[in-house]
Write a structure and sequence with these properties.
Blueprint: E1 4-9, H1 35-41, E2 47-48, E3 55-60, E4 71-76, E5 82-84, E6 87-91, E7 96-108, E8 111-123, E9 130-133, E10 138-142, E11 152-160, E12 166-167, E13 171-175, E14 180-192, E15 197-208
Length: about 210
């Protein structure tokens, strides 16, 4: 349906905050909010958060038409930006849905032909993990920048800190007890305007030395 290939790269934005509390886990190892059950039963693939912000790569398939005429492309990116080229990268300031226009131009025997195609580009659907290190072993985590869609409200947050601790708030903290590499996971559950429940999952790897 599209003559464009869209490869999405959703990236991490660091925000500083502070909250009280800790990983919700009893001495017997059962988490109070049942986040471990959510992670045990989920079939979601968790996306790895990187270190840049809301970026996408856009590519048009055709550099020339069937008869060999050169085709040039101009992208109108829906946020006031425009970029020329068959393949471009663009970073948005916020998550959301953008109306992206691809203007393709070619000349045939001196006559210019212009074709415009519009795409609804959804920059988002990512459980974004933001963190700040309080001291060597204590980390604060924020899931508030997670985005499911313009029509979806975030309801529940389920955290797995990679050390057997769990929590279920938007803003949480966890105290690690020993150095090592840990895989922090966040599942965000939301509900759309039509009543459909949706879940997304993200991963952030941290190293405690």
């Amino acid at each position: 349906m599209y003559h464009q290939i869209l490869l999405f790269y959703i990236f991490l934005s660091i925000v500083f905050f502070k909250t009280d509390g800790g990983g919700a886990k009893t001495e017997e190892g059962e988490d109070l909010c049942k986040a471990s059950e959510v992670f045990r039963t989920t079939t979601l693939n968790c996306d790895l958060a990187n270190d840049r912000l809301y970026c996408v790569e856009l590519q048009a398939n055709d550099r020339e038409d069937a008869t060999g005429n050169l085709v040039t492309h101009l992208w109108l990116l829906g946020d006031g930006s425009m970029k020329p080229g068959n393949k471009i990268e663009h970073c948005y300031n916020v998550y959301g849905t953008y109306d992206v226009q691809l203007i393709s131009t070619k000349k045939v025997e001196g006559i210019e032909f212009v074709d415009t195609t519009t795409y609804a580009l959804d920059v988002g659907e990512i459980a974004l993990i933001q963190e700040i290190k309080e001291d060597r072993f204590v980390y604060f985590f924020d899931g508030s920048s997670s985005y499911i869609g313009d029509d979806c409200k975030n309801l529940n947050y389920y955290w797995s800190f990679g050390d057997g601790n769990y929590a279920c708030d938007m803003l949480v903290t966890n105290r690690y007890t020993k150095p090592g590499e840990y895989e922090v996971k966040l599942i965000v559950e939301g509900i759309s305007d039509s009543g459909e429940k949706r879940q997304i999952c993200g991963i952030k790897r941290i190293t405690i030395r």
